[in-house]
Each structure stands twice: as structure tokens, then as C-alpha cells.
Amino acid sequence: MSSPLALAGPLWEPFARNEFMRNALLASALVAVICAIAGTYVVLRGLSFIGDALAHGVIPGMAVALLFGVPGVIGAAIGAAVMMGGVSLITSRVRLSADTAIGLLFVGMLSLGVIITSRSTTFVGDITRILFGELLGVDSADLAWQIAVLIVVGAIAVVAHRPFVLMSLDDGLARTSGFSVTFFHGLMLVMVAMAVVGSFQLVGTLLVLGLLVAPAATGALVTRRVSTMMLTASACGVLSSYVGLLTSYHFDVAAGASIVFTSVYLFIIVAILTIPRRMRGSSELPHQHEHAH
Amino acid sequence: MTSRSSSTATIDASHLDVGYGLHTVVRDISLMTAPGDLVALIGTNGSGKSTLLKTLAGILTPMHGTVSLLGGPPGRSPRRVAYLPQHPVSSHTLPLRARDVVAMGRYAHLGLFGRATSRDRSIVDDTMLRTGADGFAEKSLRELSGGQQQRTHLAQVLTRQAEVLLLDEPTAGLDIAGKSAIAEIIADERSRGVTVVLATHDLSDAASATTVMLLAQRVVAIGTPAEALRDEYLRECFGFTQPH
Rounded to two decimals, what is the model's pTM? Predict the structure, then answer.
């Protein structure tokens, strides 16, 4: 009769036996925490679309970097900066709504990235690497980069938590509480851009939004405080990384996509499981025109 | 109105134009208030009430004329001026307890890093008690009814213990009892010397005001309730008159 340890073997042996799997797990766990911190504010402030645009904005920068043999991270950072600047410029100077400006730049940057990459002799390999990442090729330099990004993103969250939460309620509340909305909105975009740039090498630009939004959205379903939402999002992200990597190992499917799919699937399960609680909450609500004491 | 000394004025606006971007919404507003005054801004949607409040709060830049609050430009005294927006936008999705939302009113005093002291916590508790928000303090904002959310946001504004309150339709969505409770809170604040500027559709809110300003993308009338709430002004503002 097999011992429980032997039965559980498939759950831990891939990591015990393979250094690349341990590195992948560590890197994806770091990315999960980075994305949970930034993603919490993305969900609270409703910036999912701009997060997606930033993720695609890095593509031309990455493509140019690959073409000239420069580290992809530098190109991605420049691409994200151009995207953020472009959105700010269009929304402030042209009479267009932010979503139109973001949508235009989104497809503009994506198509530019594909055009630049198509000049490369290794077009298919390059575009696949940019769009879907290289989770199983993580080395110690990548891990050091993830840790540096985590420290910066964590520091921004600690410093700017109060204005970020106020802005999630209303920009006017933040402004009249003495915080510059222009500055802190910009800082939030920088934080999201850093999370994107820090994560895309692992899960790719196409899927990074999944890690930004899905764990944070799961956290929002089950918590009543921003801090616990962030912790729950981190836990969901790390769990998705573990389950996704195992799935990838045992079924020989794409690792990054498996992680993102797991995080979205986890959100769907939690959303279904919490329906009765939300229904109960709604039915218990007093009438809209509430009497004061 | 203008007989008061500008040196003691809590709000002093002269020939003020307010609007968004290049679009002027209301021109030539002059207003002077003293501690304990209640100014009721009355008008339909789009009449300029919220635009004026946002300008006084420092969210919008004055387009023309001069305006000062507590002797300084709008937006420069976050600890002394508090603003309640019309409908805080994403409150239904936020995982925040009512108590946390009210405590955010102290952020203007605490800044980025200040730790909340026992005094801050005591102010939060007292304000929640006064507004009746203590009954649902531990509930998530998204679990609250519209009226409860409104009281939570009002409690947040009061927690700042400001000298000027700028309230954009604080009684929206409340029934008569709810409105009466808010009126009591406003009266209580005024008795402590707080100046209140209240944007409202409701003429009954204006009864106890020191000054009523009727707006219809211009100042239709300004004065005491008896002076401003005259039939010809109301007809111009709303298209109807009050029942006598």
C-alpha cells in the first residue's frame, strides 16, 4: 500500500527534483505578490483597462530591445513610459475620453510592436516570448530583478496607501485631504507599469493583466479591508502559481498561461461560492431610504 | 451679505466665475460668510451648485474673480475645510468597513505617515455615534444601503473637525427622518461655529439658512430665505413656484 507521502509525490517532486521548477515557483510567487499589491489598487480604482494598455505598451520597447540586443526590461520600461505619457497627453490636450485614448494607444503600440518584431529573423520566437513569457527559463538575475521590483512596488504602496484609498472613493476627497491627485495618480501608474515590466518576462504581456486583476478581484469578493484584500490576493496568486506550474509540468502545457488560467478559474469558483452570501447580504439590506437614528 | 467684515469672513468670494476647462458655468458670484453661517445653494441638475462647491474646495480653479476660504486660497487648508462629494464613485465595490471609511476623515490631519492616536480614534467613535453610523460600523461599505452609505460619508467629513463644511447634496436618497437627522447634525455643527455650504434640490433645506443662493447657470437670486425664495425667482430656477 502506498504511503501518503508517496501519493503526494506528484505535488512536490517536480520542484524537489528540478531547479528550473524551483526557480519558476519562486519567480512566479514574487510576481504574484507584486501583482497582488499593484492589482489591489488597479481593481479599487478601476484601472484594469489602463493596466492592459500598459502591458501592451511595453511590446514595441521590448521588440526594439530584442532587435538591438539590449536587455528587454529597459525597452519595456521605455515602452511603458511612452504609453503613460501618451495617455496623459491625449486625455489632457485632445477632447477625448480616457478609454478612447487608451484604446487607440493600446492597438497603436501593439501593432508597432508586431511591425518591429516582424523585421527580426526570429520573428515567431521573439513575438511568442514577448506575448507569453519564458517562465521556465528563469535564472538568478531574473529573481534579483523580481525582488528589486517587489521592494519598489511595496514601498510605493506603503507610502501612498492613504491617497490611493481616498482616490478609490473619490478624487475630490483625496484632493481636499491635502494629497495631489495628479502626483499620486501618476505614482499609481508608475507602480502598475513597474509590476507589468517586472512580470511580463515570466507570463508575457498578453497574460500579465490576468495576474494583476484576477487575484485582487478574488480578494475583493471575500474581504472587508484593503490590507486583507491584498493579503488574500497574494495568497491566491501564489496558490495559482503553484497549481499552474504543477499543471504545466504534468500535462506539458504552457506554464504562464496555466498560472493565469488557474487564477481566473479560482476567481470564478470564489465568485460562485460567495453568491449565497452576497444574496443574503442584499436581502438583509434595509430599504434604500434609511432612517437615521 | 457684504456688510460683514472680510477680515472675519470664512468664505469671501468676489465676482467669481466658476466652470470646467474653458466652459464657464456660473459667472459673477459674490459671497461672504461668517462662522456658523449656512449657505444653501439651490438649483436643478447642471445649475452650477457642484461646480461652485468644487471651486470652493480647491478641486476646480476659479476662472475669474477672487475667492478665499479662512483667509487663504481654496484647497490650501485641508485640515480646516472638508468636502463631501455628491456620490463617491466606486464605494459599492470597495472592501472597506464603514468604520475605516469614517476614519479616513482624519487623513488630512495625519498626512502620509502619521499614526492615529487615541484622540483620533475617539473622534471617529464620537462622530459615528452622532451620525448613527455606529450601528453598522463593522459592515462593509458595499453591504450598506444608500442612506447608510450617505451617513458614513457624512461622518467621514465631520471627523475632520473642519471649520468650513462643503456638502454636495448630503440628503440625496434619504427619507424625511433621514433628512431631519442630517439637518440636526448641520445645526449642531453651526452652533460650534462651523460654516456650512450645502448644495441641494430641496427647498426645505433652505428654511434655516443664513443665505440662499438660487442658481440656474447664473445667480438668479441671493439673500435671506425670504428674499431669495420668491415666486418669480423660483419660477426662473425650477419652472414652478412653492405652494403657499
Answer: 0.86
